[in-house]
From TrEMBL:
SUPFAM superfamilies recorded: Acyl-CoA N-acyltransferases (Nat)
GO molecular function: acyltransferase activity, transferring groups other than amino-acyl groups
Protein species of origin: Lentinus tigrinus ALCF2SS1-6
CDD domains to which the protein is assigned, alphabetical: NAT_SF (cd04301)
InterPro entries associated with the record: Acyl_CoA_acyltransferase, GNAT_dom
The protein's name in its UniProt record: N-acetyltransferase domain-containing protein
N-acetyltransferase domain sequence ranges: 151-238
Matching Pfam families: Acetyltransf_1
Length: 350
């Protein structure tokens, strides 16, 4: 059938018979395209022109509408399918999870480049030597120190599109204090320490997806991979200015943002922070109605990390989510220098 023929369209132009420049991705992806005989190419060319002629003829449209030209209609539909642009080519995505100690220098360099080119820009309140409007950058050394401080308990989920790194999610896991769930008589036992009664959190220390590949569920997939690689973790969390990263987290943990368990965040946030090996999390100050009695009631769950990134993109994403879901963002208002603070339960170990 003509409609199933391989077609090439660039800038609205049809490449005859599906032929494209020799070095194009499609030409290399579809074996046999370039072997199409010249006669067939000529046939497609004529067919395309005939199709346009037929469509512009009022007589033909009349015939089509009265059903008197069934075979002609079929031919035209086939030709129309042939001239319609093909679905966009999807890159071949590959996901990999690596332990922190298995990360070599080359991969770290790729991660630093992806972050520096795609993470975001500094906001107006960023202080000297940072410049408002300039890209937020990170060297390999800073990356290791900030997002992988404990390599033996650190890991990364990477996404490659046609062998180019397009997404990364760094995480560190640690046991957080389960004291609030342990009865006081157990606490009296001075030597008591049992890792299994407390929680274990998988904390996402950095999440970034290349701007060309966003809104294709890559962040969600990266976090799903992380969660799957940590079956013993009871919670997963992150601090981010971007609602999309919070949404990716809830999706990866199979919970709905509309039914986010705020009491879970309230219950565990302080102990997660206090026990964190990740410096910017350990020193962050919790803000919002979940943690403070006084204060702006519109602020629900934030961490003050003094990270003055530009909020234009997160704000637009938030407005989009609120209008799409006809709901208020459960984590409340975002303040300058703050990030949304979200923790969700993961399936406890059986
Ligand atoms: C945040 C970020 C990682 C999201 O990556 P992504 O691959 O586009 O995310 P996903 O496609 O998995 O989308 C997850 C959810 O967010 C939504 N979303 C993603 N980008 C959005 C946007 N710009 N506006 C509105 N919603 C958006 C998606 O629709 C999806 O929700 P849904 O399943 O309810 O439809 C990416 O935008 C990014 O790298 N931003 C810059 C860096 C940053 O802010 N990182 C977070 C700091 S930890």
């Amino acid at each position: 059938m003509l409609g199933s023929c391989t077609r090439g369209v660039a800038s609205g132009r049809i490449y005859l018979g599906g032929l494209r420049p020799a070095n194009s991705t499609l030409a290399t992806r579809v074996p046999g395209v370039s072997k199409r005989p010249a006669r067939t190419v000529l046939l497609f060319f004529l067919a395309e022109h005939m199709c346009l002629e037929l469509l512009s003829s009022r007589g033909f449209i009349k015939l089509l509408s009265t059903g008197e030209c069934q075979s002609g209609a079929r031919t035209v539909l086939q030709l129309l399918a042939f001239t319609m642009p093909p679905p966009p080519l999807l890159p071949c995505l590959k996901f990999v999870v690596l332990g922190g100690t298995a990360l070599n220098e080359d991969t770290m360099k790729d991660c630093a480049v992806l972050f520096s080119n795609h993470y975001g820009i500094w906001g107006d309140e960023a202080s000297v030597p940072l410049t408002a409007g300039s890209r937020i950058k990170m060297s390999v050394r800073k990356l290791r120190a900030e997002v992988l401080p404990d390599p033996t308990n650190g890991f990364v989920s990477l996404c490659y599109a046609d062998n180019t790194l397009v997404g990364q999610a760094f995480a560190t896991r640690w046991a957080f204090d389960g004291a609030s769930t342990v009865p006081p008589w157990i606490l009296c036992t001075v030597l008591y320490y049992n890792d299994d009664t407390g929680g274990r959190v998988c904390w996402v220390t950095q999440l970034v997806v290349s701007s060309e590949h966003r809104q294709k569920n890559i962040a969600t997939m990266l976090l799903l991979q992380l969660a799957a690689a940590q079956p013993n973790c009871t919670a997963m969390g992150l601090a981010s200015t971007h609602p999309a990263s919070c949404l990716a987290l809830t999706k990866a943990a199979h919970v709905s943002m509309l039914h986010l368990d705020l009491s879970f965040i309230q219950q565990h946030a302080k102990s997660i922070l206090a026990t964190s090996p990740v410096c910017y999390i350990r020193t962050a100050r919790l803000r919002g109605s979940l943690f403070e009695k006084d204060g702006d009631p519109a602020v629900v769950s934030l961490a003050n990390t003094e990270y003055f990134v530009d909020h234009a993109e997160p704000r637009a994403a938030l407005e989009k989510w609120e209008s799409r879901s006809s709901s208020e963002w459960p984590l409340g208002k975002l303040l300058s220098g703050h990030e949304f603070f979200v923790v969700v339960p993961l399936n406890p170990p059986r």
